[in-house]
Amino acid sequence: MSLNNSLMQRDLQVLWHPCTQMKDHETLPIIPIKKGEGIWLEDFEGNRYMDVVSSWWVNLFGHANPRINDRIKHQLDNLEHVILAGFSHEPVIELSERLVAITPEGLNRCFYADNGSSGIEVALKMSFHFWLNQGNTRKTKFVTLSNSYHGETLAALAVGNVDLYKKTYEPLLMTTFTAPSPDCYNREPGESWEDYSLRQAVAMEQLLAEKHEEICAVIVEPLVQCAGSMRMYHPVYLTKLRAACDRYNVHLIADEIAVGFGRTGTLFACEQAGITPDFLCLSKGLTGGYLPLCAVLTHDRIYQGFYDDYDTLRGFLHSHSYTGNPLACAAALATLDIFEQDNVIANNQKLIQKMADATAHFADHPNVAEVRQTGMILAIEMVQDKTTRTPFPWQERRGLRVYEHGLKNQALLRPLGNVVYFMPPYIITEDQIDHLAKVAWEGIELATR
Ligand SMILES: *Cc1c(COP(=O)(O)O)cnc(C)c1O
């Protein structure tokens, strides 16, 4: 038996994989990875795969990046971890200073969690608790967008809106208000992204006008609803939303866990709308895809709302064991160095254009309803009927066929349902983008037959 196969057998004896119907693996092989280098993942038989999904949207500068490796190794020899209550360390202080400096104006406090979902819980609890500390006991609800995703823990799931992940657990979840998404896939023929997003802002405004007394915060994924099939909208929606939240005395939580750190073309998506949220959640790319870490940034008014004598019990008594882990902070610092030293945001513009050019012809495919792009995220929506935009029945799992074709052709393209997307690390080359476009086209041809 090959090493690949024996590892797969051992794996299937003892593991339970995330977001997976394990029975699928009776036919679909698990791929054990021996080594990562740059954009490449290599298995035990020497097969290579381009990591086009950035290992679930986390990797920014390739696997085994020497600069990130060195920083972590150096940190490892000094301090692997220390309790962050009562104690502190240099990496977490420097990281906080730098995050305050590069995030939208006004955000000047960093709280840490150890993954994205936990960070969402932090923002929700802080928002609710802030109002409570003000003596406001009526604000207990959150507003979410349809088709949104904020993670898998129960409160994060409750403020999400993708049925596939949420519906089963509905009896366990707090109730939320849902406003229609500005997702521009649903715009009328001929309508611009801007006009459609503006039109959708009206419903949000009405909801806030009616219910604001009960509402702590609105939570959104700025510009791209990633887990919700890479649906996209215009920044004007965020500008309108910020104004409405101010008008109705409601917090705005920006979940940039997936879209932060250059994915949308700017360092943070909120920049494109010129807004500062009350809470900014960052994870995934924060450590360059190396280690779990989440930063929740907020501003002085929130911070001061908790600052008081201990016995008032206004403090935020929330913690995670690995809060602010030094190794993860070191990886984050190395990641920020790369952004600065390599002028990444400016240099990505060429890759963004290349991704558009290499996939422009997909729009003419008879089973492609839309090719959409926001910065370094490009998505291709496969449909059964192009004119009516009728989707393929989900049970047919057409996307899986694209995935299988990709694996045979050096590409880890892991579609979301019927949406094939590229969200590559920023070290991808123009030739690699051409190769991906070719493999994706063939995959879509096979899958839609
Ligand atoms: C991935 C993701 C999360 C959850 O982060 P985890 O680290 O997987 O818990 C939350 N929000 C968005 C927008 C995400 O893409």
From TrEMBL:
Pyridoxal 5'-phosphate binds at G116, S117, D255, H320, S321. One of its GO terms (cellular component) is cytoplasm. PROSITE patterns: AA_TRANSFER_CLASS_3. The modification N6-(pyridoxal phosphate)lysine is found at K284. The record marks C19 as: Participates in the substrate recognition with KAPA and in a stacking interaction with the adenine ring of SAM. It comes from the Bacteria. GO terms for molecular function: adenosylmethionine-8-amino-7-oxononanoate transaminase activity; pyridoxal phosphate binding. Its EC number is 2.6.1.62. Gene3D superfamilies: Aspartate Aminotransferase, domain 1 (3.90.1150.10), Type I PLP-dependent aspartate aminotransferase-like (Major domain) (3.40.640.10). Substrate binds at W56, Y149, K284, S319, R414. GO terms for biological process: biotin biosynthetic process. Belongs to the class-III pyridoxal-phosphate-dependent aminotransferase family. BioA subfamily. This is Adenosylmethionine-8-amino-7-oxononanoate aminotransferase. It comes from Ketobacter alkanivorans. The lineage of its organism: Bacteria, Pseudomonadati, Pseudomonadota, Gammaproteobacteria, Pseudomonadales.
